[in-house]
Structures are given as C-alpha cells and as structure tokens.
Amino acid sequence: MNRFAALIDALVFMPSRNGKIRLLIDHFAETPDPERGWALAALTGSLSFREAKPAAIRQLVATRVDPELFALSYDYVGDLAETVALIWPERPERANSLPPSLDEVVRGLHDVKRGQVMELVEGWLDTLDASGRFALLKLITGSLRIGVSARLAKTALAEWGKLDIAEVEEVWHGLTPPYAGLFAWAEGRGERPAAGHGAGFRPMMLSHPLEEEDRTALDPAAYCAEWKWDGIRVQLVARDGQRRVYSRTGDELSGAFPDVADHMLFDAVLDGELLVARDGVVAPFNDLQQRLNRKSVTAAMLRDGPAWVRLYDILFDGGEDLRGLPFSERRARLERWYEAVRPRRMDLSPLVPFQGWEQLAALREGARENGIEGLMLKRRDSPYLGGRPKGPWFKWKRGALTLDTVLMYAQRGHGKRSSFYSDFTFGVWRGAELVPVGKAYFGFTDAELVELDRWVRNHTVRKYGPVREVSAGLVLEVAFDSVHPSTRHKSGLAMRFPRIHRIRWDKPAPEADRLETLARMVVGADAAA
Amino acid sequence: MRLWDEGAGAMALAWARPILGGMAPALHPQPLPSGRPHPDRWIKVQPEGLYVEPGGFHIDPVRPVERAVVTHGHSDHARPGNRHVLATPATLAIMAQRMGEAAPASTQPLEYGEPIRIGDVLVRLVPAGHVLGSAQVVLEHAGSRVVVSGDYKRRLDRTCAPFEPVPCDVFVTEATFGLPVFRHPPDLGEVEKLLHSMALFPERSHVVGAYALGKCQRVITLLRAAGYDRPVYLHGALEPLCTLYGRFGVELGELRPATVAAREELKGALVLAPPAAATDRWARRLSDPVVAMASGWMRVRQRARQRGVELPLVISDHADWDELTQTLEDVGAPEVWVTHGREEALVHHATRRGIRARALALIGFEEEDLEEAAVKGEGARGKGA
Ligand SMILES: [Zn+2]
Ligand SMILES: [Zn+2]
Predict the structure, then answer these.
(1) How does pLDDT run across A56-84, given as a tens digit for each residue?
(2) Measured between CA atoms, how close is A241 to chain B, in angstroms?
(3) How far apart are CA A432 and CA A514, in angstroms?
C-alpha cells in the first residue's frame, strides 16, 4: 500500500503530463505483479467494491470523530477521502503494526463477508499514515480524481512497453485486473492478449477545436462538413446478441436509454449523437439532461423525452472492421447500411455541402436551429482512429453569446479547488432585484480564482453551509452557447454551457444586463415550450 | 513598573489618557459573578478592530486609528496610517523596514514582560512564538485579565521567543488552522523531505515558496539544524528581512542573492522566494526547478495542487489544531473569543470542554501564506471592491 500511496501522492502533485507518465512508467518498472496491476486497475477505474461506499465511510468516521467537527472539516476540505485521511485520529498503539499491501487490500475487500467491510477498513486506517489513508479511501470509493485519466495510464503503459496505444486500447476490453498477461506482453515475455471485444467499447475518435489559423491552412476540398448536434456522443454496439450504448469515455448508458438499446436489432458498431427528439425535432439539451445520470428510467420519462440517435459513422458492419477505410468510404457504407436496415429511433446526420470556408462560415452563423452546436469537419481520407489525433477532425462551434451578470452566490468547488470558492451563481436585473440565471465554475485562470475567492470572502453578507451570499458588487461577463425557457429557474430561463468569459472588476453592478436582454436571446422559444 | 503616563516627551503624552469615568453600555452586558464588569463591557469590536475602551487604544486595527498596539509585523496586523504605535522593538523595526515612508512617525517600543499603564489598563507584551517580535497583549482592568494572542504557535522556532501561556479570564485566540484536519507534522521531517528531493534531483534547483516575514527565516534555521551548510539563495524580496533578523541575533548562515545571472550557480541549489514568485514565471527562469512551498495549507493536498506545488512542505507559523486546543487548556480561561480563521470548529470544541466561547467578527485578516501582497504590493487586496 505504501508504494501505491507514494505513487498517488506524487501524481497528485506532479503538474506536467510528461512528469505523470514518467512516474507511472517508473512504477510499472519497479513494482512487482500483482501490485502494479492493481494500481493500473485503480487508475483506469476498473475496480469497484460493492460495500465500501462513501456513506459507510462517513458512518465509520462518525464513530471516531465529533460529527460537528467532521462536518466543518469536510465542508472546508471538500473531498471525503482527504478529509477522513487527515482527520483520522491515530491510535499510537496500532501505528507499529504492518500496513497492508495493495494486494491484501484488494483481495481483502473482495473476500470479506457482507457487513464486515468497514471493520476491515477501520483496522487498515489505524495502521496507515495520512498518505496511505488517502490512497486507501480513494481506492475503495472508486474515484481517484487525481488528474490521471484512464487514457493517460494506458499511454504510460504503452510507452513503457514500447507498444502502440491503439493496440493497448484494442485489447483492453478483453482484459481483467491485475493484468498479468498485459504486463507480460509489455515486458516482451508474452503474446499480445486476444482482443476479446464482443460487445465491448471501441476507443472513439475525437476532434480538436478549429482555430482561425487552422482554417486558413486547410484545403476545403479535402474535408466533409456535417452538423455538430447538441447531445452527447455515443457508440452503439450490437454484437454477439448483446446491445450496448456507450458514452465517449466508455461508460455504459444502456440502462438509462432502453428506448435506444431495444431498437438496436442489427449487428454493427455505430457512432452517433444521442438526443431527445419529438417528431423528428431535436429538443433542447436540458431535456436530455433529465435522462442522463440515471441508471434506470420511468415510463413517463420515456414518453416525455424520447431518445433518438443521429448517426455519424460506422465502425463495424457485422464482423467487418471498417475503421481502416477513409471517411468518405465509411460514409458511403453507412448510407447503404442505413437504407438496408432502417433502424427505428435513428437517422443519418446529413452532410453539409459547401464550396469554400466563407460559405461554410455563413452557414454556421445562420444555424440558430435548436440542437445545432456548430459544425464538424472531417478529412475525406481519414481512417477512424481512437483518441484525439490532430488534423483529421475539427469541431467548429457556433459563436458564443455573452451577457454581463452580477455575482450572487459562491460555493466551494470540488477536487483541486475544494478549498476555494469556485462555483459561482450569477444573476441579472429584473427591476431593482437580481434574479439568478446560471451557474459557472470555469473560464477563469488559477490566479483569477484566487482573486475571486478573496473577493467572495471579503464581501460575504450571509453563509448557508458551503454557500456564501455576496453583496451585489462584482460583474461577471458570462459566455454561453444558447438560452432556453426553463420552469426550474426563478428567472424562467436556463443557459446552456455557461462559463465565465471575463471578470469585469471595472464595471459597476447596476450597469449589468437585464433579464429582458437575456429573454431576447432565446432560440426557438415556442418549439421548446 | 514604569507608568507610561509618567514618561517624558510627546510620545508618552500621546498615550496618556485620563481614566474614563462612565463607561458606554455594552451590547450584551454580562457581569461576572464576582461583580467585576465583564470584559466585553470594556473591549469592543469596532470596524477599525478590537478597541480597548478604558485604555483608548485599538489592537491590530485594520483602519487607521489614533493609538494602536500592534502584535506583530505581518501586513494584516501592522497596517500603515496609525498615529501612534506601541509594539515590541523588533516589531517596530520590522514595520519601519516594510513600510518605509508609510511607517508610523510616533512609536513606543515595549520590551516583553514590562508592564505599562495606558489609561486605566495595565498592559504587558508576552512572546507569542509566531515570528520575530510577535507578542500577545495582556490587558488588566477592573479586576479582570484578558489576553489577546495575535497569531501564535507552540512548537520550537529558533527565530523568536517561545509562546508563554498566561492564565486569564478571557483568551482571544486566532484560528487560522482551527480544524482538526490541520495537524502539522514535525518540522524536521518536512525539511528532510526537501533535502531528500535535493539528493534525488541534484541537477534541479529547488525553489521554496516562503512568506518573507518569519517563514523564510524559520525554514533557513530548520535547514541549518538539519545540517545543511551550503549557501541559501534568496529572491530579492526576502533579503531585507533576513538582514534585519541578523541584526536581532538570528543566525542564518551564508545567504546569496538569487539573480538570473547566477543561473548556472543555481543548478542544484536551494532558492527561497515569496510564495507567488515561487509558483510563477520568476521561478521558471531557473533550471528545471522543483517548486516547493512551506505552509500549513500544504497539509490539504488539493490546495497544494491548486497552487502548482510539486513538493509541499507542511511548515507553519500558526498553531495547528492540537496546539490551539492545548493552549486553551494551558491558559485555563473560562471564556474564549475566537477570531481570524475557521472560528466555528474551535468555538464548538471549547463549548464541548465547558468553556464559554464565541466568534469575534473581526474583518480584514488574511491568511498570510496565501497572500500575494508580499510581491504584488498592498494594492492587490480589495481589487474591484
Ligand atoms: Zn501573522
Ligand atoms: Zn495573522
């Protein structure tokens, strides 16, 4: 556990991506099986322990620490594992017993009888130091959130073993922790593991935002354009009699979207955008939001917010892997496949013909229809590559709207911002009163965050737990993609994807925008009502 | 005993004040069982800060006042603009150094332990163990004793006199680290972390962010105590106070300026810089620096991470949770006023221990380790207000 804890600590504090890869490579090279395999599993989110949930950990700590002091500490630190790791009262008489190895922890949690998990965890917490406690708690709650993505961990493994990252991704879904076969392959001691794909997730191809200088350098004739729909990217996998809907990070959504999964009566792997649509008209993102983050759905939700998939690409047709084909050929295959299969609840995302960048720019500006986030540009000759290769695919978002708002409430953030006021609720004027219109927690630099945090602390008029109400004195220029009517907000409006564009230290609050101004920015208000 | 009133000259006159006859009614008059007036009748929270009415002076005022008693030289306690200032000689020297032109013209030094009468209050300064010159203010009036601790810590610090617990009726405590998640580990272990990293990466400069007053000098003495005898390099903003500490007899060993010209020389060297410079462009000019930060906040890793710190060192000049709670036991005050930080938890703890406790709503105090003022100038605060 000590080695794993040291790795977690070093990763938390390592600012650079390359430094993190270096640390991971060192760990893989110096740590024996199965410890390194469990570490990789933890970093890729492949471990889950049924009973060691946050609620149980809170209960445990309540037996050792004054609940009020714990609540205040948790509010300050913001992260449960870190709070418990720091506040845990050490028992001097236990400090000399040997801390458990990572393997012992994983196997212990796996084998333990129902109802005895927390007893086991309590014993471990008593023998570990603060770093060890932090690593243990992060591990068992299954959310490391230490700035290392599954992708980065796999990249480090690939680099260390001189393997192709795409190959690692390819075999990944056939593997189980602690990955003895994978490490053997990486060390040249064993065969490449079988790509036991079946209905597993295939790494998705992602795009880069299109910068002005990119565009002028690109040849328009080499690219196809299509609308970028305002839903979430999904991969539909119907293979070996199984039907799965995956998010672009490989999380399964099938349970939340049976109205899509039930209609996947084919043998193929497709790429598309998950939307809510009524009679072929795309509903605002908000409607889709209602259905996300839910493991199961009610009949009412299925009726009121029917799901739809707009198809972009085809990866497999039956057992045939099409990913090596150029985009234009895959597109033709997709169209032929769609004609033949005609799946319900799905349609094709149309291509947008254009002559040159100017015409395309005009099309993009004119697109104010609901559900369009902007344009996608895809090189005609690009194969389907997992990850985010620079060059073949670009997203060209519609220009953002902006509004001058007044800061109303601030709340402590999470993760690395947990001790700063970093979630900001802002409002605009309706008559002489401010009404909240949205919440944003990014768009500012770390230095600006420090200043915002200080401003909040110095202008607090009331505290509600972790939330502070501030005096109306700071103007935030907020950028957002669109605005929609909403019954859930007092103002009757909800912004899509708001972020802080600029902090207007200079602008007096009474000069901020009014609600009427925001109301005029609503798109398709009657369609969405 | 020297009575300030009796001293000769304008300075003493500035502090002389007739004993007040009738006292203004307190908001919550709560006479002590003995019939003595409760201290909240004569110590008031004003927008300027804590006001000792029968003495006619404020303690660490945040806005300019006529008479100020200043506990120590940190910029949130010692502010410019006060007419007359009373403090320890070291604190006055620090204020003169930091404020330059804006330093108070009329000052009165008072040594630790020397009682002085101001108006109807007997005043004594007692070491607080926070930084050089830092003092607790012991106030006696109408049969009660109140101790205003300023900032303090309890562990060994070779750069200043150690905290002295003074039994009292009311203890006014800081609570910068007033949460049980804050337990500063032993200092030497933290310094060893730094030395270990230097051994591991002998080619890289190690830049330690340390507040200019107190922390910087403390880190140096800790390094010396751990046997590090190579020169220590200083960012320009840290030099004057190190020189001043030297004048007050604090041995810091060989110090050299960390200038860009010395880039080659700085490979593998130890550099101290103000926190903001250590995590900023200034440090990036050094060769592949390891950025460390010496602060009690480093205990919370997400905070360290937010600051872009690669090597957090939990070294603080403030009492941690255990020191705060131990101090409440040591002074044995039946009543505690908590200010300056996370008051709620300490109030809760004291109440559970049978001590009457409340939070004092004093404004304007900062957590100096986080404060950028040391490099940006005092103008950084209140921007946009
Ligand atoms: Zn201080
Ligand atoms: Zn202070």
Answers:
(1) 899 999 999 999 999 999 988 888 899 99
(2) 45
(3) 10
Domain enclosing residue B233, as ranges: 187-313
Going from the C-alpha of A292 to that of each of A36, A231, A237, A297, B218, the distances in angstroms are: 34, 11, 19, 10, 53
Burial tier of B22 (Cβ tally within 10 Å: 0-12, 13-18, 19+): exposed
CA of B75 to the centre of ligand 1 (A): 8
Of A402 and B345, the one with more pLDDT: B345
Beta strand A242-247 pairing with A401-412: unpaired
Question: How many domains does chain B fold into?
Answer: 2
The structure tokens listed for B325 are 């709670």
Which CATH number belongs to the domain containing residue B214 in this structure? 3.40.50.12650
Cross-chain Cβ contact A455/B383 below 8 Å: yes
**For residues A36 and B119, what is the distance between their CA atoms, to the nearest angstrom?**
71
Flag whether A370 is in a domain.
yes
CB A292 within 8 A of CB A233: no
DSSP A103-118: HHHHHHHHHPPTT-HH
Per DSSP, the three-state class of B222 is helix
Closest chain A residue to B347, measured at CA: A69
E strands within A413-480? 421-430, 433-440, 460-464, 467-470, 475-480
What angle, 0 to 180 degrees and rounded to 10, lies between the N-to-C axes of helices A17-30 and A2-13?
170
How far B220 CA sits from the closest chain A CA (Å)? Answer: 24
Same domain, B98 and B231: no
Does residue B193 lie within any of the structural domains? yes
Chain B residue with CA closest to A85: the answer is B181
Rounded CA separation B91/B55 (Å): 21
Residue type for A312, please? Answer: Y
Residue A127 sits in the same domain as residue A244 = no
pLDDT at A381: 94
Question: For residue A232, is it within any domain?
Answer: yes
pLDDT digits (tens, 9 = 90+) for B289-306: 899 999 999 998 877 877
pLDDT at position B29:
42
- Are A204 and A271 in contact by the 8 Å Cβ rule? The answer is yes
Q: Which domain holds residue A226?
A: 208-397
Residue B3 covered by a domain: no
If asked whether residues B27 and B159 sit together in one domain, one would say yes
Mean pLDDT of B268-293: 86
In this complex, which of A12, A473, A503 lies closest to B385 when CB atoms are compared?
A473
d(CA B384, CA B19): 43
Listed residues A106, A124, A141: the one ending a domain: A141
Same domain, B130 and B195: no
Cβ-based contacts under 8 A for chains A and B: 92
CA distance B124 to chain A (A): 32
**CA–CA separation, B60 and B54 (whole Å):** 17
- Same domain for B226 and B174, yes or no, is no
**Shared domain check, B229 and B138:** no
Evaluate whether B55 touches B23 at the Cβ level (below 8 Å). Answer: no
Catalytic residues of A: 228
